[in-house]
Amino acid sequence: MERKTPVIAPERLDEQLAICAKIREYWQARGVTPVAYVETYGCQQNEADSERIRGLLADSGYGFAQGPEGADVVVMNTCAIREHANQRVFGNLGALTHTKRRHSGQKIFLCGCMAGQPEVQERVKKSFPHVDGLFSTHHLWQFPEILWRVLTRGKRVFYIEDEPGSIAEGLPVRRDNDLKAWVSIMYGCNNFCSYCIVPYVRGRERSREPGEILAECRDLIARGYKDITLLGQNVNSYGKDLGEKMDFSDLLAEIARIPGDFLVRFMTSHPRDAGVKLFDTMAKYPKIAKQLHLPVQCGNDRVLKAMNRHYDRARYLELVRYAKSVMPELVLTSDIIVGFPGETEEEFEDTLTLIEEVGYDALFTFIYSPRPGTPAAKLPDPATREEKNRWFDRLCQTQNRISEDRHRAYIGKVYRVLLDGMEGNLLTSRTEGGRLVRLEGDSSLIGQFREVEITGATTWSLTGKLVEK
Ligand code: 5AD
Ligand code: SF4
To answer: Cα(81) to centroid of ligand 1, in Å?
Structure first.
């Protein structure tokens, strides 16, 4: 079988890197070291994209600023998942008129998921004339060309053609952290959950070649990275578009066999495609973190169907039961949407009983937000905002109690953690399951895996002490 997804030809990427060199010369000729500011909204996929944008900017000679004031380039990498996210971006974009007034050479770019929404493109064209460039996620790899055109032609640039999407390998990356790394393994989503904008703004699913992913992981591990998170909107459908027979579990096992002291984790799993093979693979390899983000969205079968999720409550609970049976220490988290159009109080209460039954370690909870162009946005939505807020509060209270109980059960036990930073004079660390543990200790320990005994717990975090070797 042939690979279905187009990969950008290396020559076309080389052209972009050559433009980076031209931009560097442009600034050198002016005797200026330019600075850039990249602001990221939304999920880890956007964080990973921003690391590539920074990589391209660094190759173009830019240093980095902590804020937009005085920056020569400002990039807003945006999220469109809920209306609130869009409003925040428009508010912050409006405020950039002032920074631009004080620094007339400032060039402002909007990219990420919002840049793929036609109504955003129109609004930016008409009402935000200070935005110099806008490009959707498909065009990220062409950022050098976009920046060059803005710098040298003084015209606004919009790269928004709707294409099925491609894969660009070999872009420079400037990573935010030197212990933990994101590795995108696939892009886009084919699921079309009825409430979700992602398939419209990020295009169809497309997988990177396993060889490219493995090479990236090997390189990170050789450079001392200890924690790798594989990213995709739906990692379980990894490989379906590849010419060879390699599914997500196979990929995960290959990564877990790389020599070295590290952990690999992943997000996000869709319950429709997760199953026995994945959980058995996780259980088999010590280097695969026993952590699973398995968004259920809600606990009622009618609503799950209306959401187009392709599983029901019983199947989800069966998955969780199996996963816990092969991984007793599994840390399980989920996303929940409250107030999907037409959801009743009784239906919402099925979500409450489901979270009790599963016993999640933590939840990411959202009130439904209609997204233009999605099927759910056309459904009648009779529940009031006040009702939904009340449901939301009940959900959070229930989960807080569950999280607190689960955290309390950690006390007195010993866990292996990765020491990853300082907060005031305390060390911070993460368990294999991703729980935050604060403890006393010296900053020279950062970067090590060590054993800690858990001495205290709150809803959100744990405290512990180092177990002396
Ligand atoms: N409204 C509210 N929450 C949403 N999510 C996705 N789309 C919407 C929406 N329209 C949530 C889902 C998803 C998470 C990333 O964001 O729970 O898993
Ligand atoms: Fe959105 Fe569903 Fe795809 Fe997740 S799986 S990105 S919720 S459409």
So the answer is: 6
